[in-house]
Structures are given as structure tokens and as C-alpha cells.
Please model this.
Amino acid sequence: MGNVRDYQSPVRPTWCTGCGNYGIWNALKRALAQLDLLPHQVILVSGIGCGSKLPDYTHANGLLTLHGRTIPCATGVRIANHGLKVVCTHGDGDAYAEGLGHMMHAARRNIGLVDIVQDNRVYGLTKGQYSPTSDRGRVSRTSPWGALEEPVHPLAAVLAAGGTFVARSWSGDLDHLTETIVRALRHRGYALVDVLQPCVTFNRENDYAYYRARVYRVEDEPGYDPTDRAAAFVRALEWGDRIPIGVLFQTEDRPAYEEQLPALAAGPLVSQPLRAWSPEEIEGLLAEFV
Amino acid sequence: MADTDLSIRIAGEAGQGVESSGAGFALALARGGLHIFAEFDYHSRIRGGFNYAQIRISEHPLYSHSEPFHLLLALNEDTLRRYGPQTLPGGAVLYDEALQLQPNALPQGGFRLFPVPLTQIAREVGGSELMANTAALAAAAAVIGFELQPMERVIEQNFRRKGEAVVEGNRRVARATYEWTRERYAAAFPWKVTVRPAQRRMVLNGNEAFALGALLGGCRFVAGYPMTPGSPVLEWLAERAARYGLAVMQVEDEIAAACAAIGAGHAGARALVPTSGGGFSLMVEALGLAGMTETPVVFYEAQRPGPSTGMATRTEQGDLLFVLHASQGEFPRIVLAPGTIEQAFEAGWRAFNLAERYQCPVIVLSDHYLATSLRDVSPEELGLQAVTVDRGEWLDDVQLEALPEPYRRYRLTPNGVSPRAVPGHPQAVYSATSDEHDEFGHIEEDAVNRARMHQKRMRKLETACREMRPPTVYGTADAPLTLVGWGSAYGPLRETVDRLLARGRPANMLHFVDLWPMPVEAVSFLLARMGQLVAVESNYRGQLADLIRMSTGWEVSRRLLKYDGRPLSPDWILERLEMAAEG
Model:
């Protein structure tokens, strides 16, 4: 088993004291160490936001991209080198506002990404605007009359798009979060891990006590079957006094997108040498035009 | 016998097979040893409209279409009525007797009418009215005196998949129509072509030439979203992906396409995004990401008239200054605008070399005219032997293991290029970020660092500029008139120069493929030695002329600008030059 110190970066986080991102960061490093995934075997892809700085704070390959474009950038990396474990870390604005469309297609494609969404239900880096997962009525700088929209239900949305791994955890339970990320890292296709995390500066309502009082593990529910899509859908929409966490749904029935691309059968694209074109092959291409 | 210069317009509504008929006929003519240039004009719709393929035929190499046509092959009544009256005097209009036109519906002019029972022959000889297009092409071949044998080979090739019975039926229809038409009309049509000893000639358009160049140049990843006229590149490469080991993805939108290509480029695959202007507009933010993270990636932007949807199936050179300035901030990019099939092929592989040598985005600007027009070239002319792969400063495993100090992805270097390592090696673990960063890739906002990193990136542009090529000169040295153009203007300009010379008026042209970074000294040197400069462009303001002024201070004040969505042609350019001379 690896050591979490292997992922120690010289850069120290700029997150607020008590930020939920620390829990996510620690759980991710623990999960990587547990699976012996060394820094050069992993690439952390993020977008823009407080949480998206995580790759800069971690000694591993990283690609910090544009707001909302984490998933398509990660998709290109994964196709070019499926020998790398590709992990996305981005916030609820990145994932569920600007990037929600990409997420639906990643789920349809079942591309091998672990998608960790740092869901604090507020915009932190831009100082407190409401987010796609804020409750209706949430008052913020840009919703002075209270948020008018229904919050996004990401787990239900990904299930509806054909997602094969749909999970939620929260940053106040390091063991559960680590275990959930480990399971996601072992999944063959697209794996969504929505992580509820307090924002101690801009979202005082949804603090540690709020979540601690509400979350329950589906694993502890008698008879809960994570291969039952319809049951998972009901739990995915459950939100209020009780909030389900754990792997709500998982199936290994569908192959990952990259497993089906003919060009990748011979190994990662970047490991295959560039083709030396034989005279016969060139002749074959010319023959198409003469 | 006088030189042949004959144009045939095959016209019909969308869905009637105008494009495939034109392409098949062009291929047969090239196999018959003739030079061709085929231009396609169609509407953005699935049915109806007035589509045509215009095939120009000569014994000499052709670089452009010519607007007038000698023979109209009208596949329906609408196109007969619309294009019939434009047929050149002495020419002919060939159409199907099955249209049962009233005499007053027929076009009048100094041309002849050649009704042929195309549908009837197709039905009676071939057993299917679907073979009427074959009959039409055979009739056209008979009228111009072209032998049937090369046509039969194309028929066989095109229908092979449908079985021998269909091939044989089409062949019989072709022969019967050919004989029927030759006996009645051949003598009445004055322009003829002669089959010549056939050299091996390829017939392809700019999209295909570019895609072939990209494939041979080691393109490994393609992501795109369909948009005319760029999507045929996506389709062409997708069709060959499994065979040649490319990953080709149709993704959810152009933003995803650009981002996926950047991800793939970052991971080390030669990555391409084919699109058109509207799609490129969506990719603009990602372009800056490639600039900041110094990721090699190639954009193929086939222009069409804008703004917004504009005209989907028409042509324009309206995006030059857009792609040059797209995305916020300053960063190096390279812009190439091939103008011929050969140049499009070269751009296909050269763009990847430039992208990897300078670790920056490269934009190849094409347009509908170049993308879709067919020309014949020999494999030698295409430049297959010239393909080289240069991956730039790339640290392999051996070099990485021998590194004396921790790897700095963005190391400050005199030429601005930092030796690149792709993720996956224990000695090269780093982050690339869209934020300003230090040499290791960590986010850094320090003022001194910012200025140094910005200078480092921009230095790459100065380094790249040394290998950018000056514009090519064609025509008479020391001529009083110099036509200046870029991209697909090459053919129409070249032929204008030829026609002017034939009239005893020496002229030359200056044609740009490498547009950015502009090799300012070489361009200034050339401009100082040219005649009166006239910019000829397919846009409203004269974007190249503006760019030249911005870069060199030279003013190209005379500008012939066409922005009606139709391609530049030698006929149009000459007419405008003469109008100006008279005026």
C-alpha cells in the first residue's frame, strides 16, 4: 500500500480553515494510496473554483482547465492514454452549471473517469452567489429575492443519462468518503461521486451539523440493492430531513467507451509508435482517389 | 486542334445525385487523361433547390473554375428553366424527354436543345428508372466526344457494392444512351475532348487532401461536431480510424471537441479538431487554454459566410482576423491558409509539426470553395514523399531518467520552447494550468514571474516566425500589376495572371499560405518590388490587406472584394479589373 505522503505537493492549500475540501483532498490521497496508484499513474483534471485548485496542491499529474470543461478535457486525456487513472475534481458550479451537459454525455458514453464533485452548494471563489444545488429560496448576492430554480439532482440526472456508477458521500466522514472513492476508482466506466461539503465562509446554513444530522448510508438500509436502478432513482431524488449517501447504483454490465474504440485495442494511443507507412498502405490510400 | 476548355454544368434538385454524378464524371475524365476542376454549388437543404456541379475540362492543368458553361445537363425542370438561358451561345442544353416540357417552357437562346429519353432507356434497357443519372452522364460524354470506357470503370466502382446485376444494368444503360445521343447530337456540339494517354491522376478536394495529410502526418485523435463544410474531414478520418489506429469521436458540442483535443494533445497524441467558423466561435475559450498550457493542437476551420448561420453551403474568407485574435489575452498561435490541393495536403501534416515544435495551437483556414472543389493531381505533385514528422523538443524516458534536477515543464529558455514531457513518467509529474504559473506549472501570480512567463510564451512566436514562409510569387517579374491574395484565392488569381498575360498585359500575384506569425521582413522586401498592389479577397473589408498594413505598414489600397457567398473566379476578377481600368 502506498503512502499519502507520496502525494505531498510543495504548494499549500489556500482553502479556509474548516473547508470541506480538506476532507475530500485527504480522502482522495488515502484512496489513491490504498490502491497503490502512484503520482505518475494518475492525472487529476479540474476546472475553475476553490475545489478545482486541488491538483495544484497534490503531487500527481494535473491539468487545471476551464470553468465547466473538466469532463471534456479529461475525456481527451483518457482516450489518448487510458493507462492513466483519470480523476476529475471540480465544484458544483463547474460540474452542474457550466458543465452539466458534458456530464450527461460522459454518463451516456460511460467513459472511464472518476468524477468527484465538490458540492458545497454555493459559489465560494466568486464570494457567495447561489449555485445549481442551492435550495429553492436561497438568498444570496445574485438571488436577493431567493433562488427561484429547483436545485439540480445530480445523481438522478446521471442515472437518467445511463450512468453506471452513482454515489454520494460527504466530507465529514473521511472513512466513508475514502471507501466510496476507492469503489469509484475500481469502476470500469464513468463514476460520479457527489461530495457534500460545507463552505464555512459563504454557506453557514449547510454546515457540518446540518449534514451530520441528515445523512444516512444506503449500505445500512435493510435490503438495499445497488443494482436496482429504479430503487436508486427514488433515493437519488430523496432530499430533506434524510439525505442518502453511499453507492446508490452500480453496474458493470456496460463496457467503458474506451474499451470499445478499435484504435485502443493495441494499448494506449500515446504508447503506440506513430505508424511507419508502408508503400502498400500509401498505395492503398492513393487508390481511393484514382 | 485548339486547346480544349470546356465546362459542363450538371444541375438538379437536392437528392437527385448531382454531387455524386459530378464527382463520378470528373474521375472518369481524369482517368481519360484530362485535367479537371469541379466546383459544387448547393443549397443547405435535403430536397429541392437548384444544385449544380460544374466540371471544367482541359488538356492543361486547371487551378480554378470558370463561370461560363458550354453544356447544361439539367436533371429537372426547375434547373432547366433557371440555368438554361445562361448556356453559352453555340452550346447545348441536355435534358430528359420524360420531363414532358411544353415548348413555351423551354429556354431560348443561341444554344441547342438536346432532349434524350433518359428515363425511358434506364427503364427499358437497365430495368430501373434509378439508372437515369447514369444515362445522363453517358449522354453528356457522347455529346463532348469523350469515350465511354473510363465512364464504365467508374460505374463499376460506384455500383459494385450493389451487386453485379446493378453494375451490368448501369453499364447497358450507359452504352445505349451513349449510342442514341452520339448519333443524333454529337455533330451539333462544337467543343470536343479527346482521351489522352492516361497518367495516374488522383481526384480529390481540399477537405480530403487535408485529411490525408493529417493521417499520414501521424494524427491520432480527432474530436468534432458536424458542421458544414468542415465535417467531411471528421467523416473521412472516422471511416479510416479503425484501420489506421485513430481515435475519432463525435462529441456533444464544439466546446467539448476543442477541450477533448487539448486533453489528448496534453497527453501526447497528435490531436485535430475539424470545424467551421460557427463551431470555432464556440472553441475560442479553449484556444486560450491551449495557448496558456502550451498544448499542441490543430484546428481545421473551413470558412463559410457569416455572421452567425450565414450561408451554410457557400464560401467566404471572412474569418482571418477572427482566428488571428480569437480568445482573451495574448499567446502564440500559428495560422496557415492553404490554397490548392497540394497546399491543403501539406498543411495536414505540417500543422502538427508546427504545433509540436512550438507547443501551441495551429489553425488551418480553409473555406467551402477549397474544401469541396475537386482537382486532379499526380501522387508526385501532391508531395507524398515530403511528409515528415517532427515532434519538437520532446523528452523521452531515457532523457527523463537522466535529468539532473526536478523536471520543469515550463523552463525558461532562450527560444521560448520548454522541453516537453507527457504525463505518465515518474520523473515528470507536473500540473499544467490555465492560471499563470511558474516554471514547474504551479499557480503563481508574482509580477516578475508573470512577465517572464509571458515573455517566454511570446518568444515562441518570434522563433516560429523564422520558419514561416514568405508569400509565393507567380507570373511575370517586374509586372506593373500585382494581385495579392491568400488561401483559396490561389487558383482564380493564378488564372487571372495567365489570362492577362495572354492578352499581352503582364501581371503577377503574391499568394500567402503562412499568415501568422507573418514573416514581416520577407513580406516587406517582396512588396517593395511589386507592381501596383491589388488585394483580391472573399470578404468585405480586405482582411489580408488590413493585416499587411498592421504588420508591415504597407498600404494595399486597391481591393477587389467579393462577399456574395460565391467563390472568386478569374472571370469576375478580370471584369472588375477592366471596370476599374475603364472607370
